[in-house]
Amino acid sequence: MATQGRRPARAGRGTPVRRNKAAPAERFPPPKPAKKTAKVVFDAPAAEAELPRTFRLGVMPGATPGKWIDAWKQRMPRVPLELVPIEVADQRRALDDVDAALVRLPLEDDALHVIPLYEETPVVVTSIESHLLAADELTVADLEGEVVIGLTDDALGAPDLPGTTPAAFGALSTEEAIATAASGVGIVVVPMSLARAHHRKDADHRVLVDGPTSTVALAWPRDRTTTDVDTFVGIVRGRTTNSSR
Q1: In whole angstroms, what separates CA 71 from the centre of its chain?
Q2: Which of 18, 100, 152, 191 could anchor a disulfide with 214, C-beta 3.0 to 4.6 Å?
Q3: Cis peptide before 106 (omega within 30 of 0)
């Protein structure tokens, strides 16, 4: 037959073949919306800078706060500590002018916080030539017949020493009394720290084992308990920076 053996006609070369291309919107999807974040406030008030200040510590004669001062310098390097000498006879009034003070008890005043710290041993100060120095320590009975020099700044509250005789002259300051005792005129009974503070080559001292002790305390006005005072209290009590109150 005439139609046998014929091949089907092919598409012309100029006819394009359609491809399944994605639409531009599908090929380039829109960006995802940004995640919401917390609003940052840039106008928050800045922390107030600490005002310069000094911690004023009153110190009566004989007190030795050296180790506490060293601890303060390490813990509070930006707050200088000023030592203010005070007299025992005037220590209550002096507390109105300092942040806190090392004082001698008794000090009775309900307006004060008072923390006893330690007891000071009493000693007898006498001339280097005195027979009293033959003993390693003394008792009140050993002082019988001795002349006792009175003190204007007595830290022991005029101790009762039976068998002794008061000096014929008026009371002297501790420094003057020790100088007088060194000359051989009488004896002086004081806390050991004062004997050491006024040490002389022509005088020496012996512990008075049954004599009255002197209590050293830290005191400050109740209505002025500041952060600095709390810090110093922590130092004298041995608290570290991480200790709880």
Answers
A1: 7
A2: 191
A3: yes
